[in-house]
Design a protein that fits this description.
The protein is mainly beta and 257 residues long. It has 2 helices and 12 strands; from the N terminus they run βββββββααβββββ. It has a 5-stranded mixed β-barrel. Strands 8-9-10-12-11 form a 5-stranded mixed beta barrel. Strands 1-2 form a two-stranded antiparallel ribbon. The N terminus is likely disordered.
Length: 257
């Protein structure tokens, strides 16, 4: 992956609690490709089996806010990335809701993983929830989402825009703050340190991808919610691994109103 994750990847690395080996993991599944709306293309992360990934920790690398674990599983060695947690070498762990990222470059660790599974560490006595379907970065069409959007009233304020207006005015909005009111048609929490929200408000053209906008935030949301977000417009954003956005709103605050 060639780009920075904001999301993603951080300025410095606290490398390896136990080791700094550079051997990459043996693959379990291949990552298919899937087109993204808004002119972007992505190598999609293929969800691992629903039951999660279980294995013994052979190596641990710190890359705040993540911890990378090399695991010995029944199918071979794999790398997994989870939010920072105290996991000792030799511990048996289970990673739930794992999502595969191929050719993932960590700027923090200054290395590329041929395959790494981003997920959450299971707590004792819990079972894995169903893996997220599809790609958190992929755009949403009405065929892919059962959420009925209709017409959502525009937000108020000097920086208020409809989704169609943000797309139409994107050149002049670069690095500026916008306020958008829309309905959440897709929501993926905790993917690489942020929550990913797709909003629609009834404006824009589906065929051109201007009906939908991607938002990243630390605030929660839920599919079907009507929310108002306030964040910064970024253009031609490259998160690496083929995840490139012509337009995205980042670091947004989410207000349910």
């Amino acid at each position: 992956m060639r780009g920075a994750l904001p999301l993603l990847l951080l300025a410095s690395a606290t490398i390896g609690c136990n080791s700094n080996k550079t051997q990459t993991a043996a693959p379990i599944v291949a990552a298919p490709t899937q087109p993204m709306t808004g002119g972007a293309q992505a190598a999609m992360g293929a969800p691992a089996p629903v039951e999660g990934i279980s294995g013994k920790v052979l190596e641990r690398l710190e890359a705040s806010p993540y911890c990378y674990l090399r695991l010995k599983t029944a199918k071979g060695e794999v790398w997994a990335a989870i939010p920072e947690a105290k996991v000792e070498k030799g511990t048996e762990v289970t990673i739930v809701n794992p999502m595969l990222m191929s050719n993932f470059e960590s700027k923090t660790l200054n290395r590329t993983f041929s395959e790494v599974y981003f997920g959450t560490l299971a707590t004792p006595g819990t079972t894995a929830a169903p893996a997220p379907t599809g790609n958190p970065h992929a755009g949403v069409t009405m065929a892919a989402s059962p959420v009925e959007v209709g017409k959502v009233d525009k937000a108020t304020g000097g920086d208020a825009r409809t989704i169609a207006e943000v797309w139409a005015q994107k050149g002049g909005l670069k690095e500026k703050t916008v306020t958008i009111r829309g309905k959440v048609v897709k929501y993926n929490p905790g993917v690489m340190g942020k929550n990913w929200i797709h909003l629609q408000d009834g404006s824009g053209e589906t065929g051109k991808g201007t009906h939908d906008i991607t938002v990243t935030s630390q605030d929660p949301a839920a599919k079907g919610d009507v929310v108002t977000i306030k964040g910064t417009v970024r253009l031609d954003k490259d998160f690496g691994a083929g995840y490139t956005y012509a337009l995205i709103v980042e670091d947004a605050k989410v207000m349910k109103k």
